[in-house]
């Protein structure tokens, strides 16, 4: 009975994905978007949602692990700019803005190897969706307000299958437990929307741009 339910659930997932792909083709034709990028964005997102909503099915059938392995292996073919010792980044797809300076929509595979060393939370230039493929991390989120009030922080563990939706103004830090680092780090699917703003760290003296923050931090530590 359990096996029959597993196969039935898998059939439902693949039928849903087939319907989504058909809808994506129609949207692409009407709106003029790159078909491949739209298909990957939508199909990948819904596939992950279905995976998370049916964790029992994924655990029994290995579907979740199979999807994660396929995405990671595909990403490894197209490396992006790595941050040595901290994060390896790989392209999955990009849809460029007119002029080509910034991607309108993009998807990357991130391999996170250690925690954020900065004690200040940061935001991002774009809204994004991140899906934990392997490992996991503790996300420490920080909410706007005065510096004193801003110390209200919330930590939460996000393991494989977690889907996180974040705005460009959301602030956080990532913390990798020792067990995750020992098992090879955390792998995520990271998909961003259009660029909205610059990238900031939020300090006692207010927001500081990501390019200026390292020098600011060293100066404060040396004082």
Task: Describe this structure as you would to a colleague.
- This protein has 223 residues and is of the alpha+beta class.
- The protein folds into two domains: 1-61; 81-222, Jelly Rolls (Sandwich).
- It has six helices and ten strands; from the N terminus they run ααααβββββββαβββα.
- Strand 1 and strand 2 form a beta hairpin.
- Helix 1 (2-31) packs antiparallel against helix 2.
- The protein is globular, with a radius of gyration of 19 Å.
Short description:
This protein is 38% helix and 28% strand. With 223 residues, it is α+β, with helices and mostly antiparallel strands.
Order of helices and strands: HHHHEEEEEEEHEEEH
Instruction: Name the overall outline.
Output: globular
Radius of gyration: 19 Å
Strand order of the largest sheet: 1-2-8-3-6
Could you list the spans in which at least 5 consecutive residues all have pLDDT below 50?
Answer: 54-60
What distance lies between the first and last C-alpha atoms, to the nearest angstrom?
Answer: 68 Å
- What's the pLDDT, averaged over the residues? 77
The CATH C-level name of the largest domain is Mainly Beta
Structural class: alpha+beta
Q: Give the percentage of residues in beta strands.
A: 25-35%
**Largest sheet, described in full?**
5 strands, antiparallel
Q: What is the number of domains?
A: 2
């Amino acid at each position: 009975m359990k096996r029959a339910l597993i196969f039935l659930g898998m059939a439902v997932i693949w039928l849903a994905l087939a319907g989504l792909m058909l809808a994506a083709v129609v949207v692409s034709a009407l709106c003029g978007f790159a078909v491949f990028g739209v298909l990957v964005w939508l199909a990948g997102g819904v596939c992950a949602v279905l995976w998370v909503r049916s964790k029992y099915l994924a655990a029994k059938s290995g579907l979740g692990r199979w999807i994660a392995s396929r995405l990671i292996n595909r990403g490894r073919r197209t490396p992006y700019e790595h941050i040595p010792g901290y994060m390896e980044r790989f392209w999955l797809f990009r849809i460029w803005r007119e002029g080509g300076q910034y991607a309108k929509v993009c998807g990357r595979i991130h391999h996170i190897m250690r925690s954020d060393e900065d004690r200040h939370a940061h935001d991002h230039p774009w809204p994004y969706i991140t899906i934990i493929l392997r490992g996991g991390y503790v996300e420490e989120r920080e909410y706007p307000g005065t510096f004193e009030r801003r110390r209200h922080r919330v930590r939460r563990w996000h393991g494989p299958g977690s889907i996180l939706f974040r705005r460009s103004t959301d602030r956080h830090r990532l913390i990798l437990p020792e067990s995750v680092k020992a098992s090879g780090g955390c792998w995520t699917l990271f998909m961003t929307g259009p660029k909205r703003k610059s990238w900031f760290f939020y300090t006692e003296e207010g927001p500081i741009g990501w390019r200026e923050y390292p020098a600011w931090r060293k100066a404060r530590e040396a004082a």
